[in-house]
């Protein structure tokens, strides 16, 4: 089943259960001081749960563009190194605002997965909150009893507060959740460990796909719980992971969400994406595979953020976007040997593929392409200069350890990323004095603090010991570094 159809099946199914289908909220949040990007389906409905606004319908379903690169949910460092965490992904969700509860939500989830999508029942595991006496929260007997009608008991896993209990904060709405995991191991692998209950922490191919949260209680200031007068359901399912299960692959990158992008990178670089096995980055072919995963993932995040109005910049959300793009450029530069801009060429592929469901990406295609190309051009120049300087450092270095202060100079003056310095040194048989680098960084921070009083509105004044130079009204060199 094509990814387009997977999405449509989900929305049609919940429409048939009386849900109003709404569009995704923008990925970038402009009016929420607590959150930079949408990182889950429920963010756009927060006010309904808090009772500050009334929804158009008490049953809603959608697919939400999410970004998990900052704050409480930050998956950035995993991206490329596993095959099922992305920066940007779609979260399919259904909601009940004071309407249906566990008795409907869990059987519907099961019906959708096993009857509509016809996923193999034997490969599904579910988890239920085990309870926590110290925190006054009971075992979720109701969810357990509902699941028992569908799932053998040895595949109902009891989960702890960290994984199976949701709370908005120290006070306010909270409740148990129940997750659904899918086992994508081969039959042989499964036979070898039969009878053993798994969740994805135990095996990389047993993957969480759907989380059902039941907002059942209100936590009061004294820590005690009371039943909420109106109970709510909030669910989130990883769209790309569901496509993986539906397309019989063991990696999100082998689904049609990613293969057109991967093929384009192969065409541009002449390299081949060969394997989803996640191994050490020190092997040559793994470097290629990891870099390709990073690039096809990151271009989606950056393209959708720009299409939703967040340009790369040096502050706030714009800086996060710039860093994601620079991470992609750096992986290409280092592991795919791409010395010319090329990521911008992926935007056309993305627009073709996603434009029907998300028209914003087609509408903004020109802008997105240009912005990415310009960012690539300027950061590649930085990388190139830095590399030459690093060659000089290596040629004149005494011994096999490069002083931290030298690496800091490259970082501070030219924006050359420290992890890239470390990597290149390692490849050439040198090591980096990391403690020296950290010390130089600390010293620079105290110098900038001391110097910050002498800036006027538009011009930054260069004072002794402060490396900041004026490069434009909205950009200073020391802000432009990536860390
Ligand atoms: P995981 O444990 O795999 O990190 P999670 O528990 O953090 O997932 P939830 O917050 O429960 O995820 O989000 C609901 C669903 O969204 C998950 O069940 C998963 O299918 C999907 N999901 C979460 N994070 C990502 C991500 N970084 N990339 C792709 N899908 C994701
Ligand atoms: Mg997570
Ligand atoms: Mg989880
Ligand atoms: Mg979860």
UniProtKB/TrEMBL annotation:
GO terms for biological process: alanyl-tRNA aminoacylation. GO terms for cellular component: cytoplasm. Residues 1-483 form the Alanyl-transfer RNA synthetases family profile domain. Its cofactor is Zn(2+). Its main location: cytoplasm. It is found in: Cytoplasm. It catalyses: tRNA(Ala) + L-alanine + ATP = L-alanyl-tRNA(Ala) + AMP + diphosphate. Binds 1 zinc ion per subunit. Its EC number is 6.1.1.7. It comes from the Bacteria. Catalyzes the attachment of alanine to tRNA(Ala) in a two-step reaction: alanine is first activated by ATP to form Ala-AMP and then transferred to the acceptor end of tRNA(Ala). Also edits incorrectly charged Ser-tRNA(Ala) and Gly-tRNA(Ala) via its editing domain. Belongs to the class-II aminoacyl-tRNA synthetase family. This is Alanine--tRNA ligase. It comes from Flavobacterium gillisiae.
